[in-house]
Design a protein that fits this description.
46% helix; three-stranded antiparallel sheet; binds glutamic acid; alpha/beta; Helicase, Ruva Protein, domain 3; Rossmann fold
Length: 492
């Protein structure tokens, strides 16, 4: 059996971080089993359709690197579909659903329902008043198919519902949750086809999973309670049901479902803040999966090797942004400098530190800043705050300690010697950054803290921060001299 799995988001907005994890687990499982991973768009709920959301989904997937083998792709900014089992967009498959709903109607497993919204609402209210769980009361169940077809042909508004048997246990094995049993008396006669001629999710999902040869349905736990209805439909069609895997929710620190109200949840939010895709993917993999015998930093190849549905937990995984930041800073520290620089430049442009048209000529300089930031930032949007210290010719002192440092007796002459060295250097490069202190020490006898601290204070207004030799190289001759002169004039 060739494993075939799918991620089937609805284009209702952004891709939630939980969606990325679902996609990832599907991907890992497929790759581990030499299978295929499919991206399908479930857009049958037209009221929730958001323009541009499909492109957003594909972009988020491409960005994350969790790439599918079949489904929708962007080519020169245009959506295209690739794969044997298309179309991969449910709204393009309406004829297929029509064909298959006929089979259920003919087999007596589905029926037309002509109840008005008002009637359904009345029934609901009555049931609620009696303390019952609201569900369809079966009013149209016994209308003969022949009569129902006539009424429908006459233009009477209708839906088509699933005819569930009464009081029947439906059981299935979920790979994460084990045996799950539900009785049909707790289930509703689900609407399968709506008045607008579109199928509901529940119908489209089983037709598509079957026709696309899906062997394992790996999805969020919110669908667990719908699965018995799906199983029933597989049986009604005489199809073999796939294996089911319901993934635990992603929770916030208060153990509530992670939602937009509590901060970033969209993949694009994380992208905008400068989380690296491999870091986000690495972190999110761990929210709900406990890999065996391995550290927490894992490449996608390691994840493919180690992934196991048996080690996916039943209970919700907590999304911890501090941990994500830790993982991200690991990838920043170890990241390719050219790539990081390219990714950082837009933040510097947006924050007005460099101009769009300067970005090529300043690339090497920015790269130095990024290099010194690598150990110090958790996500790339923090680069501007970090880089600010390297812009401008005036120096603001951070606190009284800095002031006191600059008031020390030897500082005036120390800064003079330092300025001289900078002026006379052939080039302000790494070598100079390293040797200038040795030269000054030799010449003046000043050493240790008394040597480094006043120079750091004069160049940055602070007593702590990035390595001083890096600061010197990044600032360069002109800025160093201007800053030292500014400090001499204002603080000494
Ligand atoms: N379209 C559903 C969603 O948006 C997919 C559920 C499933 O994977 O079956 O979550």
């Amino acid at each position: 059996m060739t494993v075939r799995v799918r991620f089937a988001p609805s284009p209702t907005g952004y891709v939630h971080i939980g969606g990325l994890r679902t996609a990832l687990y599907n991907y890992l499982f497929a790759k581990q089993n030499d299978g295929k991973y499919i991206l399908r768009i479930e857009d049958t709920d037209r009221t929730r359709y958001v323009e541009g959301a499909v492109e957003g989904i594909v972009k988020a997937m491409e960005w994350s690197g969790v790439m599918h083998d079949e489904g929708l792709f962007l080519e020169d900014g245009k959506l295209v579909q690739r794969g044997e089992c298309g179309p991969y967009v449910q709204s393009e498959r309406l004829d297929i659903y029509k064909e298959y709903i006929e089979k259920l109607l003919e087999g007596g497993h589905a029926y037309y329902c002509f109840c008005s919204k008002e009637r359904l609402e009345k029934v609901r209210q009555e049931q609620k008043a009696k303390g019952l769980t609201p569900k369809y009361d079966g009013f149209c169940r016994d209308i003969s198919l022949q009569e129902a077809r006539k009424r429908a042909a006459n233009g009477e508004a209708h839906v088509i519902r699933l005819r569930l048997p009464e009081n029947k246990d439906i059981t299935f094995d979920d790979i994460v949750r084990g045996k799950v049993t539900m009785n049909t008396s707790d289930l509703d006669d689900q609407v399968l086809m709506k008045t607008d001629g579109y199928p509901t999710y529940h119908f489209a999902v089983i037709v598509d999973d079957h026709l696309m040869g899906i062997t394992h349905v790996i999805r969020g736990e919110e669908w667990l309670s719908s699965t018995p209805k799906h199983i029933f439909m597989y049986e009604a069609f005489g199809w073999e049901a796939p294996q089911f895997v319901h993934l635990p929710n992603i929770l916030n620190k208060n153990k509530k479902k992670l939602s937009k109200r509590h901060g970033d949840v969209a993949v694009e939010d994380f992208e905008k803040k400068g989380y690296l895709p491999e870091a986000l993917v690495n972190y999110i993999a761990l929210v709900g999966w406990n890999p065996e015998g391995t550290g927490e930093i894992m490449s996608i190849e390691e994840m493919i090797e180690k992934f196991s549905l048996d080690r996916v937990s039943k209970s919700g995984g907590v999304f911890d942004v501090d941990k994500l930041n830790w993982v991200n800073s690991h990838y920043i520290k170890n990241g390719d400098l050219d790539r990081l620089t390219k990714l950082c430049i837009p933040y510097l442009v947006e924050d007005g530190l460099i101009k769009e048209e300067e970005k090529d000529e300043k690339f090497e300089w920015v790269k130095r800043i990024v290099k010194s930031a690598q150990e110090r930032i958790e996500y790339l949007a923090q680069i501007s705050e970090y880089a600010k210290r390297f812009f401008g010719e005036e120096v603001e002192l951070e606190n009284e300690d800095v002031k006191d440092m600059l008031k020390k007796e030897h500082v005036a002459s120390l800064l003079n010697i330092f300025k001289d060295k900078v002026k006379n250097a052939d080039e302000i490069n790494d070598e100079f950054g390293k040797k200038v202190f040795k030269m000054i020490q030799k010449e003046s006898g000043i050493k240790g803290k008394n040597l480094y601290m006043p120079i750091r204070a004069a160049l940055t207004g602070q007593l702590h921060g990035p390595d001083i030799d890096q600061i010197i190289v990044i600032l360069g001759r002109d800025t160093i001299i201007k800053r030292v002169e500014y400090v001499e004039k204002n603080y000494i």
